[in-house]
Amino acid sequence: MKTEYIDYRDGDVALEGYFAYDETATEPQPLVLIAHDWSGRRTFACGMAERMVELGYAGFALDIFGKGVFGKDGDTAGNLALMTPYASDRALLRRRVNAALACARKLLGVDGDRVAAVGFCFGGMTVLELARSGADVAGVVSVHGLLGAGDVPNAEIRASVLSLHGHDDPMGPPADVLAFETEMTAANADWQLHVFGGTKHAFTNPAANDHGLGTVYNQLANDRAHRAIADFLAELFAAPAGAVEEEWQAD
Questions:
Q1: Which has the closest alpha carbon to 150: 129, 164, 171?
Q2: What pLDDT, in 10s, does the model give residues 106-155?
Q3: Closest Cα to residue 59, out of 24, 110, 106?
Q4: Hey, which CATH number is domain 2-249, 3.30.70.2740, 3.30.565.10, 3.30.1490.20, 3.40.50.1820?
Q5: Does the structure show a pLDDT above 70 at 241?
Q6: What pLDDT score was predicted for residue 74?
Q7: Is there a contact between 28 and 47 (Cβ–Cβ < 8 Å)?
Q8: Using CA atoms, how far apart are residues 228 and 51, in angstroms rounded to an integer?
Q9: In whole angstroms, what is the distance from residue 170 CA to residue 155 CA?
Q10: What string of H, E and C letters represents the secondary structure of 125-175?
Q11: Tell me, what's the pLDDT at 243?
């Protein structure tokens, strides 16, 4: 595996992605964008990009906030301040994530015609906005993502959509879930929703342990989510599902 930081831009804004790929691959690899949580493109997102290489893909951890702009663990107010401008301006968020897509699909060794995106928390919202923008990607996965739509009209949703959601997530109450289902159905999208019982927000993040905020790691839900991601990507890219499941279970 080889990794490198990639500079790119959205207009005047400098951005920095993290690219992980198999430099020994003899053919271009499918690409999986990784959209970060509300603290920015930090270790978790970069680690997920590397996991994509283990599954046989190239991984690109994209940057929404700007090069060198990061939040901190446990800094709810600071992280919220970073996220809010994009959550409240979905046109800006769509433009920013599409800038990452345009950059990453041109990288050496990437099959730009086979692209998917996986996002966590705020990143889940990000990849849903990528789909809502009508981007030409095979599929998106929102993992404990924020499901609510903004006030920007949707283009035709061409991506298959998978949402992995905790039933007890205070940031995704039942009303938001129902609205998401209604939205996807009205759009005639190919969509799935997997709901994990007894599970709160941020259930894939081992550092999440704030019961008051409702962000709590859940090992069982985490394992199930990763298997679902692997199966979904295998279906999109026509990879052998059994092989990719073994990679997740090895941990």
A1: 129
A2: 999 999 999 999 999 999 999 999 999 999 999 999 999 999 999 999 99
A3: 110
A4: 3.40.50.1820
A5: no
A6: 86
A7: no
A8: 14
A9: 29
A10: HHHHHHHHCCCCCCEEEEECCCCCCCCCCCCCCCCEEEEEEECCCCCCCHH
A11: 46
Spatial separation of the C-alpha atoms in residues 239 and 120, rounded to whole Å: 23
With CA atoms as reference, report the closest residue to 32 among 159, 146, 122, 158.
Answer: 159
Residue 240's pLDDT is 46
Spell out the alpha helix ranges (H) of the chain. Answer: 43-54, 76-87, 90-104, 122-132, 174-186, 219-237, 241-249
Angle at 56 between CA 49 and CA 123, to 5 degrees: 30
Give the predicted TM-score (pTM) of the model: 0.94
Pairwise CA distance, residues 68 & 151, whole Å: 29
What is the amino acid identity at position 240?
P
User: CB of 118 within 8 A of CB of 31?
Assistant: no
- pLDDT 10s digits, 7-45: 999 999 999 999 999 999 999 999 999 999 999 999 999
Asked if residues 101 and 135 have their Cβ atoms less than 8 Å apart, the reply is yes
| Partners of residue 165 on adjacent β-strands | 195
Domain ranges of the chain: 2-249
Predicted pLDDT of residue 73: 87
